[in-house]
Amino acid sequence: MAAGDRLRGIARSRARRLRDSGLPILQCALAAGLAFLVARDVVGHPLPFFAPIACVLVLGVSVVNRLRRSVELAVGVSVGVAVGDLIVVVIGPGWWQISVVVGLALLAALLFDVGALLLNQAAVSAVLVATLQPPGTTAAFSRWIDTLIGAAIGLATAATLPSHPLTRARRGLSALLTELEAVLTGTADALETGDAEAAEQVLTRARDTQGRVDALTDAVDAGFEITVIAPLRRRHRGELGRLRAVVPAVDLALRNARVLARRAHAVVRDGERPDPELVAVLRRLGSDVAELRTELTRGESTDGARSALIDTAGTVPLHGGGYSADVVTAQIRSMLVDLLVAAGTDRDEAVAVTSSTRRDG
């Protein structure tokens, strides 16, 4: 059964990857062909292999085509080809010439005060120029022009045919909150049944969420960059701003969930008797997270989730029924603050709400 679940999980992951990457792959493939066509038939270069190479390097097949990444790659490949051509024309090809070309390409790229991505691309492009064919003056100039054509078409494609800036961000947020809901309900089940193995599985699941948080942050930032280069997408900046404000609060909630899952595992392992109301609160909080997920991913008002979270805060017992269970209770209160902030509540107000609604037992 466990093996079957893993296979189904892998199949879902691969299907999701294909769905997310379909448009970027199509864009990259079509743009590479167009770059070759323009360089060969419009500019008149007989074998413009650097045009599609530059285009592919700029666009890549990444789901998140970041503006800074594309610009860095465009500059990097152009600098590398230019330096490689100019230097090898003078000193010729050879092993020590490649060392000189790579060093000078890296130095030239450093003058632009750029990141490691551009530096690496400049060096790789210089090596390609120095080794693929001995450059003559005309060929060298042609290859640099081909590079500029490919880079320009890649950047134009990224600007005019971008992915929807909200789709990936909303999908990533939905996946994160789904995981948080599963951790909460799974913890409630493990505490209720005293199943140590189930508690350990929930803990493992909670620990695996950080990569999703990082992916969501990248998706939101990439969405903003799309709205900068694509005028038709600028209307989504407001919603992306809302999601950007939500991500840190959800990240904190997940961090608290990891601590909660670890202490819940200790509750079961050490044989503590958790308060039944603690289990009930965990289930309620899971339902609240599901409501928050629906409202945020649909771009709706979060008043419903905010009201539900405040009601849940009023049911949190002062004590959980043991040392580790008390820690679980404290983590629930911390998560309530984070989730209320994600729902649009000021943090100080959220702290006040969760403090004032504690029951006296």
Structural class: mainly alpha
Q: What is the top-level CATH class of the largest domain?
A: Mainly Alpha
Strand content: under 5%
Total number of β-strand segments? Answer: 0
- How far is the first residue's CA from the last residue's CA? 42 Å
* Helix and strand sequence: HHHHHHHHHHHHHH
Tell me what the CATH architecture of the largest domain is: Up-down Bundle
Radius of gyration: 27 Å
Secondary structure: helix percent: over 70%
Question: What is the fold named in CATH at topology level of the largest domain?
Answer: Methane Monooxygenase Hydroxylase, Chain G, domain 1
> What is the approximate shape?
elongated
What can you tell me about this protein's structure?
The protein is mainly alpha-helical. It folds into 2 domains: 159 residues, no CATH class; 190 residues, Methane Monooxygenase Hydroxylase, Chain G, domain 1. It is 80% helix and 0% strand. It contains 14 helices and no strands. The longest helix has 41 residues. About 1% of the residues have low confidence.
Helix-strand blueprint:
Blueprint: H1 2-42, H2 50-59, H3 67-91, H4 95-110, H5 116-132, H6 137-160, H7 167-193, H8 196-207, H9 210-229, H10 237-269, H11 276-297, H12 303-313, H13 323-342, H14 347-356
